[in-house]
Amino acid sequence: MNNLQTTIFNLIDAALHQKTDAEVTLPKNTDWNEIYEELSNQSVIGIPLEYMVNNIDAPKEITDHWKVMVYSQVAQWTKLMEAQTKLIKLLQDNDIPVAIIKGAAAAMNYPKAEYRSMGDIDFVVNDKDYKKAFELMRANGYDFAADEAKAERHLEEEKFYHVELKKGGILFELHRRMSPTAQGEDIDQMVEDRMKEGLNHIETGKVGEYEFPMFEKKLNGLIILRHIIQHLSDAKGVGLRHVIDWMVFVEENVDDDFWQSEFADYLDEVHLTETAAVFAKIGKMYLGMDKSITWCDFAEDETCVAWMEQVMEGGNFGKKTNKTTEGARVMYKNKNLFTLIGSLQELGLEHWEPARKHKVLRPFAWAYQAGRYARKGLGRKAPIKSLKQDMEKGKYKKELLDKLNI
Fold first, then answer.
1. What pTM was estimated for this model as a whole?
2. Which of 68, 179, 186, 230 is deepest in the core (most CB within 10 A)?
3. How many beta carbons lie within 10 A of that of residue 196, not counting itself?
4. Backbone angles phi, psi at 207, to 5 degrees
């Protein structure tokens, strides 16, 4: 890891573990603009800002900017939590069981929940309540997040796991299950079954003054891990935010006794033991996770280092990765021509609005998407060489996935 990354790790460690400035080692001639950019790319800008304002000796114009960002972070978080509270009341008043996933259910493990950036509100309902919840939201001022045809398609077709709506500038993701992953249909179904059962045993989470329905501890932890797997499977890119979500959950909930007595077997059934250990040990190696937690020590250092390099290279949702590699990632993900065309077809329908509106165009969506990738690829310098490099990177990531047993 380079000096910039080490600086960021030290700041995050200090902020999350409430260390004093004397415990933080920062290099001379620190470039605060670079730090700000990297924190943004990793979607963790809110974590160290308050600490930096209060403890770091930086130029006044820098600290003044940070103060504005702190206030903005808290204001946005409050806006989301108010909107979430209104949504929960709407659903519960109409007898629809609901659980908040990710978002506040992850933020509650942070020393200050507003540290965690939240871009939308994710929640899950029973499959039988899916359309009812959608129609209820539409009747109460929640609009289509994209076009109506896309929303209707995501609502009607069983293969789609969620539909997006918006209100007051906030995005709401209504889930009936989590997205499919590289773990395969059998494991995905096991997770879905656990979530269905979990909706019968909802608990109450709390951050600050805000209460919300959520899954019990083990299932909430499983979903945080599955969020990591989802991003690995979709090649979107795992950011520091995902790593930290898991680390603070572990610190708050999974000591060695709990791991041995309850959690290890629970995760092993859905093949997530290795993933749990690798990303927890990353927290110990780089972000100051509690050293008394030893259950994750069986993870290989080499694998942890390799995955942290991927995190820092890609950023949250792959923000730092050139978008022109998207086509190569799709080719890597699919094992044969039929699955490749299927992926192109789905992405074509997502990106080509006329095909969503006009059924006669839908059979050709795969060709539209292939052309879209071709235009991107050919627009690069040395496109053949670049494609080869992309495929080599894809092969390397597949090897890293194998080390996670997924």
1. 0.84
2. 230
3. 15
4. -130, 120
